[in-house]
Every structure is written in structure tokens, then in C-alpha cells.
Amino acid sequence: MNNKILSLLVCLIPILSACQHIPSDYKEVKEEISIYPSYMDVCIPFNIAPLNFHIQQDGSSFVTKIHAKNGKPIVIKGRDVKIPMRKWKSLLNCNKGEKLFVEVYLNKAETWYKYPTITNEIAADPIDPYLVYRLLQPLYTTYEDISINQRSLENFDNKILYDNRQLSTEKQGQCVNCHSFQDYNRTGKMQIHFRGKQGGTVFVSDQGHQRINSKVEGLISGTVYPSWHPSLNLVAYSVNDIGQEFHTKDLQKTEVLDTKSDLILYDVETKKITKVASDPELLETFPYWSPDGKYLYYVAAKYKQLVENIEIDIVMQYENLHYDLLRKSFDPITREFGKTDTIVNAAAIGMSASFPRVSPDGRYLLFTMGDFGNFHIWHKSSDLYLMDQLTGKYRNMKEVNSSDVESYHSWSSNGRWIVFSSRREDGSYTRLYISYFDKNGRAHKPFVLPQKDPLNNKKLFKSYNIPEFIVKPATTNRHKLARAIGRDAEKAVL
Amino acid sequence: MKAKSNRTIPIVTPVKSDKTLIQWTNVVVTILYLIFAAFLTLGQNKLLLWKLQDLDIFIFSTQFWIDAIQKPGGLTLYLASFLNQFFYFPWLGTVIYLSLLLLVSQLTAQAFNLKGKALPLSFIPSLALLLIVTQLGYTIYLLKIDGYAFIPVLGILCALIGFIWFKKIKDFRRKNFFVVAYMLIAYPICGAYAVFGGLLLLLQMLKSFDRSKGLRSWIPVIIILLSVALVPYFFFLFVYPSIALQNLWVLHLPAFDVSGSEKILWLPYLLMLLFFILVVLRGERKLKSTPSLLKKSIPILLFLAVLVLVQVFSNKDKNFKTEIAMQSASEKSDWRNVLHLTRENANEPTRLIVMYTHLALQKLGIAGDSMYQYKDGNKPAQYLKSVLPVQMAGKLFYYQNGKLNYSYRWCMEEMVEYGMSVSVLKQFVLTSILNGEYAVAQKYIDPLKSTLFYRSWAMEQQKYIDDPRKISENPEFGNILKLTAFGNLLDGDNSQLETYLSVNYVYMEGGTPDMVELSIQYNLDQKNIERFWPRFFLYARTHDRIPIHYQEAALLYSYLEKKVDISWVRFNPEIVNKFQLLLSFSQKYAGYPEATVQKFYENEFRGSFWYYYFFNKEHSYENTPSNEQ
Fold it and tell me: How far apart are the C-alpha atoms of A296 and A238, rounded to whole Å?
């Protein structure tokens, strides 16, 4: 018996070792290898999950060697290059700040070909370990299957924080949206909206879960787009009367429009709402706190109703709605707002700004600009822009933008990484891209969020939405949230 | 353990001649069942079966397997979708379906010892399963469950296999272990049917419940109850993130309403439940005397009663079936067949049938000559729960009318709410190709390439994605692209398909000759004189021949308004003569009640625009009162 096992092992050793061998006899090809996703010339964090990819060129067999200055090279056979987690971690950990090389060999008609080596950089700056996003189909009016997911960026673990089908039935659908954490979840506080059945906002903290009904008389709507104050128990919200219309011809297909919108501040402890900005001739929305908590950034557009029916009026004027980027000063001690400054006068250049996000060091302001409106996920003209607040100058971030939509974005807690959503792959399904933001204020070529199955993005018929970095896992789960939603809501007061 | 139930059906050991008679009776019953099932499926509901696979999809890929298996009860969903795809050829799917129904009967007989004269009873669950499909009707468009036809079949098989296995176990401890193992294995496989299987085991236990054994006799009952209650909860807590707590024990059952018209769709489920409860609790004892003929005939009478019930409650709406057939023919651009179907349909048509007919006439270029020769109507759709035409056919009509964004939108609305299907993916591909969105067209075509029956269709479309120049070589694409010469507008259809298309073309400005012609037709339909004239004149100036209905309208409108000069228009003398006859009719029957004269006009002018103008009342599909209660 033992002899048999030994013979088997003797036979297997050359087979196994052959699997790991890179071809010694090959022809060099000058053209670039085509891989999906295109992980080429990118800068990656040393703690990122393996950048698995698929070789798109035809061939009968494939060998890929991944190596760097230090550590053991990784050799993988096959068209789908699925990199072993432990070897990848080990290689990246001992090569912080170094280059990462990827060599692809392809066999075609009994001849091996070697393609030009792909060179990527390994940044010494880590990325936050988790990303929380909403996963949903690029839907219009119906909704069925929506989840809030917490993805580990260091591996492929994905935890569903909430799936809207947990409490909904066929008749009473539930839409889950707009999650927001306080200070990258360092404080363990988050909030999440639910609409439809058992609608309301759930506040999560170490003390438990609290369901709030924020539909208060005197406000346009319940609370919509949130931003937690980085240190105080305050959340700034927009309140919006949102509508949706459809383009008959334009490939942007739909337009999400506010007919009214204001800003409010919600005190989580007292449940008290105070109005922040409610100019009847301005549509104010998308609030965002500066990291020091002394400014509230937001966007606002001038709007004057011209005809009696506001739905018709807004459709007539939608291309003229240009949102400027503004900020209000805030005193965290007195909790009072001060003067308002216009940071980007987008309307003056015929553009429209949205989603202001300030870097953790407070220096850079990242935002999107498109031709009009604020809901830029449907605007192909939408690009990421960066303002250096030291100089007040801003620029189009051509190094990360594409010809299609770039929209919702977030800074990592160390300010060295940005994640943003883009429809560059097929024009319809939003994917998440990560870009290194160096000390000189330049972003590097972005790479798509790595997946265990390299073809996942092609097979997935859902969009990623509202990506937010967090430094520790959310202090809730689907059961706790479901229980909280099932409880009676406490009423906010104005 | 001995049966102690008092609820018994007397069973007598038959003598030899009785045995032969029973055997022959059972052969006849089996043949009757098979003929009836084949009649009800292939004979009556062939198109419904085809539509079942059209609204579902099975993809041969690892991802599809992973996606399915991650869902609660995923294996059944996967298998059901796999089997469902064979309805592409309705005969093939039916053979598979009926084979499984026979297996259900066979296992029912085995599980509950239905032999001899009791054998006809074993067909009752199969008949109920058949009714689950044949009573559907318009509800087919609202199904959110994959492999709808096969899920209950596989589920019942799962429950029966568990029951048979359980009965074979004699050892007390093993029985208890089996119950827990069964629930743990069966629940993720077949959801509610595992719960149902567990309840059957409970009934079986209760049937042989022996109080004299004290606590020991309660143990298996408690174990079953706990397994049925807690195993689904275990999966809720630790495995499946997307189950609603209240749905845990009814997973895989359809979400039909329990009140209103839709509650009738629960009938087959109730029938099965009742049957299985009674058949488990039924006892067997030998009688000394021979039972009466009536008692002997009870199983066969019950079988026949259920058979009649299935026939009575099966959907017989001809318009519904015609709509599906028209949709299938339209997707193949078989416009002649669409017209054939409309001629074959003896009923008053629904608006959707009228729309399909007009679409076919437009595509064949004969609408201007014959659109009023086909039956018009506004018969309310016989649905149990409201389904809008835009949900059923919006994506196709918008596509065929060049409203590509709206076609895409309704594809998305459908996919979001009812899941991915062959129907929606095919339309996504076509719409995206014509919209020039090749990357996303590729995304939608890839899954179709991994299907059994739509691969060749997908490969055919792939060439347009690979080389968009070929689009112009395809005449069908060309005809649709001719209808896309309009500017962008931000609006919405308010889910009103016919109204939106009609208003859009009635008020259209400019456009290609094809669009102008459509605009004329929609203006005729709306009897809009003011908007008819400019389009008519444009048409008359640019075409040698003017279609019959346009001439009829021009003559009538000119006569009514007496302000438009049509002397330069080349009218067909026959139409002019006919118009003179119309005028003489109007003088002859002036002052008569409309209902009286309509018959005279009908004999002479039916099929003309004039008859439509005077006698066709205003209609709006969307405003039609529904049959929903």
C-alpha cells in the first residue's frame, strides 16, 4: 500500500512541478496582452485583494508569472488568473513602494509567446479595509432586489448588511438606500434609509438601533441625502421633492430632478430638526461636512418657477439647472451656521457641480461636474474635478475620467485613495474604480475593484452605488437592522 | 406501531374477477389521465408553455449555478429552470413535464399504498399540479418565481420521497434522526415543500400516536414540530440573507393574493393539501362484507370530479392565447402570421390584439389600405390581477416604433421586477444594437449564448455588435431606424402604451416618410382632421399612389369641412363612386336612429374609414374597466 502511494507521488511530482513552470522556449510578442480587467500601469495598495484577471487573447494554454523585487514569484496556469491569497499578500507585503511585474505566456499552435511585461506599482499607503456600497440594478421606477454590502478590500469577503427582501413582500416592496457613517465608522455610528414598507431612518451606534420617522410637517420631505458630522451627533440632510422623467432619444435615458430641495440638520440625541438652507429660489442638496466639522459643503442651483405646474416647469428648465458648490461655516461649540461662500461657481461656466467631498487633511475638494442637474450618475458629461483649497484652483481629473459617467466618490481615511463610480465599461452598469492619490495631488490610473472571479463585472447585472470607505466593520447586521425596522418609529421634531 | 385512527376508508380484498376489472379500470383511468393532460397542455396551452420558457432563462454557466444555489431553495430553482427551458419546443417540455407528473402519481400511490381500486386517487395531486399551470392566464406576466411549472412538481416529489423513506424506517431513533436530517437537507433544496414534507411526517407520526407510551410517544412529534419550525429559521439566521421572516415557511410558493380574484389560483394548492392530509390519515381495514358499488366507485368518481374541476378552472381566454401567439410571431417578424391570427380570432379583440394587427399591417406596408378591414375592439383583458399592456408588450411595441429608449426602459423595469428572462434579454440586445450601445448589447447577449435554444439567435445578432455596418444591411433594423428621426424630449408614458404611441405620432412634427405615414394612420385613428391634412398633402405630393383609407378620409373630411381644396389629388374613381354612395346613404337614412341604420351601412361600408369614423366609438385601452374584482 505504502509503495503504491509512493509511486503515485513520484508520478505526480513532475506533473505538479510542470504546472508551476514558466516556458523556457518562447517567442517575444511586441503587442500588449489584452487582459480583463485591465490591471496595467496601475498603482495598488499593498493590502488590496488579489487582482485576478482573465486573459482575452486566444491560446491553448497560459502561464502567468507575478513577481517583484523581493519575495517568491507566483506562477499561475490558465486563462483565468486567480492569484492565491496567501502568496499574493506575502509578495505585496515585502514589496511596499516597489514595482509589481506580471508576465503572461501564451501557447498557440505548439509555440509559446511571451507578451510585454505589465508593470504596476505597490504603494506603501494602505487602503481602508472595508468598502460599503449599495448593489442594485440600474433601475428606473421598479425595485426588487437591493442590498447594502460591506466588502473587505483585503480579500473577497462580502457581508450583506441588509437585503431589502428581508422584510418586504410582493405587495409591499422596500427600498433601502443612502447609508452614511460617522468619521469612517471610527465611532461605530451609521444611518441608513428605508423607503416603502416600514420606511424611516435607522441610526446605529454602540448603544443600539433607533428607527426615526423624519417626515415632519413643514419640511419638503423626509430626510434624503445624509452626511454625519465627523465628531458631533449631528447629521446634515437634504430634503428633496424628487421626480423622474425619461429621455425619448438621449442615451442618458432618464433624468432625476428635484422640484424643491432644502438642507436641514438633525440632532441624533434630541431628535430635533433645524433648517439650514431653505431659500425658495434655490435648490440646495448633497450636504457634506468638512473633516474638521467646521464647514458644511453642498450644492445649490437657482430655480424660479415659470409655469404653474411645477413638474412641467422643471422639465422645461432642466437643462438650465446649474448647481454651484457652496459651503457654510459652522461653529461646533455653539452649533450655529455662519456665512455662506461660493466655492465653485459652476453656473458661470455653464456646468453643474455635485457631490462635494473634502480630503481628510482638508486640502483637496473632490466633486463632479456635468452639463446640468445634480444626479450625475445618469449624465455622461459628468467627470471628477479636484480643487486645491490652498489655491482655490480646480481642474478636471483627466487622469481618472473617461468619456462616460464618473460619479459618486469617497476619500480613504488616510487621503491616499479615492474610490469612485463609473459607467465606462458599458455605459449602463456602474463599477467601482480605485485610484491612488499621491502627495503631489495627482491621482494615478484607476483600477476596478478586484473580484474573485475576474469576469464578475461582465456577468453581474447590477450597479455599485454610494461607495463609502470604513476603517472597521459596521456595528450592525441584517438581523439587527430588520428588528430595528420592525419597531415603531420615533418621530423627529422640527 | 398499529394504526388506530377511526377515520378509515373500507378496503376489501377483491375476488379474482374483480381484480381484472379493477386492473382494466386503472388502465383506462391512466390513459384517460394522459389524454386529458396532453389535451390540456399541448392541445389547449401550447403557447402558454412556450411563454413560460420565454419569461424564464437557464444559462449553462458556473455563475448561473452559483447564483441559483445561493438563493433559498436554490437547487429546485435551478432544476426547475433547467427543465422549463424545454418548453421552447412545447412538445418536448410537455413530455418531460407529464413524465414527472406520472412519477408524482406513481410515488403518491407508493407512499400511501393506493393500489387496486384506490389507484385513481393517486392521479389527484398530478391533476392539481396541472391546474397550477393551466389556470394561469395573464398572471404569467406577474410571476417572480423561476421555473414556475416545475417547482411544485419537484417540490412534491421531494416531499413524497422523504415520506416513503420515512415509512421504511422502523427504528424509533433513526426515525427521529431522519426527520431532522430530512428538514436540514430538503429545506435548502425545495423550501416550502420540505416544510410540507415535514408536516406529512408529522401526520404520519400522529396517526400512529400511542398515548400509552407516555413521554416517549411525544418525543418524535416534538422533534418534527421543532424541525419544521426551527430548520427554516436556522437558514434565515445563518445562511440566506434575502428571505423575509414571514416567507420562511412558504418559500417557493407563488405570491398570489389570498383575497380578490387571484385567490382562485390557490385552489390546486388547497386541493393537494387536502388530498395529502386525508390520504395520510386514512386507515386500512379489511371488511367482512362486500362494499356497495357506490363505495367501490368512490376513488374513480373523485378522480373524475377533480378532472372536471381542472378543466373548468383552466384558463380558456382565447384573446390571451392569441396575444401570446401574436407576440411570438411579431418577434420573428412573421407579420403575415399575425394577420392570420387576428382573422382566426372570433372574439372581440383586446386593444393589444388590435395593436398587434396594426403593427403587422404597418410593417407590411398595407395599413393605409386595410387597417379598417380588420376587427376593432376593446374587450377587457380577462386578468385576475391587473397587468398593463405596457408590461406585457411595451418593450416590443416601443422597439418596433423606433422608441428605443422606452423599449430599453421597459426591459429594465421588467428585469428588475420579474428577473432575467430570454424575452427581456433578446429585446435588450436588439434595442441596444439599434441605439448604438454595443458594449451593453454585448453584456446582454453573452448569457443568451450560453443557453440551449437561443445560442444561434445570439450568434446571429453578434455580427451586428462586431461589425455595426451590417445593421444597415438588415431590412428589419432599417425599417425601425427609419422611425427614429425625432428629437430628444424629456417626458414619460405614464405606463399607457397605446395612448403614448398614439399621442406621440398624432402630434409628431417632421420625420421620415415612414413616420409621416404612421402619423397619418394615428390621426385617422384619432379622427383628427386638422392634423390629418398637412400629413396627407405631404404624402399625396410625394407618392404616386395614395392608400385607400387616406383617400376615404380626404374625401370625407373635405366634404365635411368644405374648405380644403383636394381637386389636385388623384383619387381612385371606384373610391369616389363609393363615397357618392355613402352620401346617398346619408341622405336616405337621415333622421333614422343610429342603431337602425348601422346595419345598412355595415353591409355596404364595413372595412372603410367612413364606417370607422361614424360607427366606431371612442376607445382607450387604458380606460377600459378591468375584470379584476
Answer: 12
